[in-house]
Specification:
The protein is an alpha/beta fold. The chain contains 11 helices and 10 strands. It has a single domain, classed as Rossmann fold (3-Layer(aba) Sandwich), CATH 3.40.50.300. Bound molecules: adenosine-5'-triphosphate. The site of adenosine-5'-triphosphate (ATP) has 12 residues, from strand 2 and helix 2. InterPro entries: AAA+_ATPase, ABC_transporter-like_ATP-bd, ABC_transporter-like_CS, P-loop_NTPase, PstB-like.
Length: 279
């Protein structure tokens, strides 16, 4: 076994011990997204090939794989953001709570309320911290100041940033550190009470300390939300996810419990990737 595999195994074991000592019971989870035979083309580029993935609610699902393998494309199909690219074509089905979201009759506005997204680079609006949070709720017609104040407090608390910003709510969000801006973006997501949070490499622009805070936050958030995270950081996937999908050249090579993927993968390409032999 390579050194990297041993490190992965230790990370996964530590996680399991932590969960066991916290008394986490193993329970059956409901499926939140079910992807069946999904194919996606950017004009001539066949970016996703026959993807079949079933994602459970209130778990962290990590999407890993080398650059260009379709990770971002896949999570952007889950909120239909990928449609914004001209020339995109899909076949197959993605059901969200049993309904096919690729069906044109599925209202994309409803989907985006339920499925929030956090990007690689923190992208707060050039507005105050307060205005960043109330932006979504206001679009949904909430005007009552008391209710908005409450949403701001709860969302910032939910993203573990309230104590750091409660005395400067009306200052510009650009004055926050990168890590704080990312937690603000997560709070902005929480403000519209989504069901699922998609995260596209949310810590790759952050320092190790801010990364750790976001990872701790993800562990808290999964109690209430389903989280799908794209990450290049294998240790991160091993630390924080319940399930892992390994993508390669637009295909899912292996999908299953993070523990199994990182310690006993069934496909040699998965083993080569997590051992750092390519990618
Ligand atoms: N807007 C686009 N237009 C055309 N092709 C695209 C577009 N976005 C991605 N692609 C292509 O689709 C394939 C998958 O790209 P994608 O960004 O999903 O991969 P990724 O695994 O997320 O990569 P990375 O880890 O580098 O972010 C690549 O071949 C890429 O060049």
């Amino acid at each position: 076994m390579s050194v990297v595999m041993m490190e992965n195994k230790m990370t996964v074991q530590l996680n399991q011990e932590k969960e066991q000592s916290a008394g986490t019971a193993i329970e059956e989870k409901d499926v939140v997204f079910n992807t069946k035979e999904l194919n996606l083309w950017y004009s001539e580029t066949h970016a996703l090939k026959n993807i079949n993935l079933s994602i459970n609610e209130k778990e962290v699902t990590a999407i890993i794989g080398p650059s260009g393998c379709g990770k971002s494309t896949y999570i952007k199909t889950l909120n239909r953001m990928v449609e914004l690219v001209p020339g995109v074509r899909t076949t197959g089905e993605i059901t969200y709570k049993g309904k096919n979201i690729l069906d044109r009759s599925f209202r994309v506005e409803d989907l985006r309320t339920q499925v929030g997204m956090v990007f690689q680079k923190p992208n707060p609006f050039p507005k105050s911290i307060y205005e960043n949070i109330v932006y979504g709720p206001k679009i949904h017609g909430i005007r009552n100041k008391k209710i908005l104040d409450e949403i701001v407090e709860q969302s910032l608390k939910g993203a573990y940033i309230w104590d750091e910003v409660k005395d400067r709510l009306h200052e510009n969000a650009y004055g926050l550190s990168g890590g704080q801006q990312q937690r603000l973006c997560i709070a902005r997501c929480l403000a519209v009470q989504p069901d699922v949070i998609l995260m596209d490499e949310p810590t790759s622009a952050l320092d190790p300390k801010s990364t750790l805070k976001i990872e701790e936050l993800i562990q808290q958030l999964k109690k209430d939300y389903s989280i799908i995270i794209v990450t290049h950081n294998m240790q991160q996937a091993a630390r924080i996810s319940d399930k892992t999908a390994f993508f390669l050249n637009g295909e899912v090579i292996e999908f299953g419990d993070t523990n199994t993927i990182f310690t006993n993968p069934s496909d040699s390409r998965t083993e080569d990737y997590i051992s750092g032999r390519f990618g």
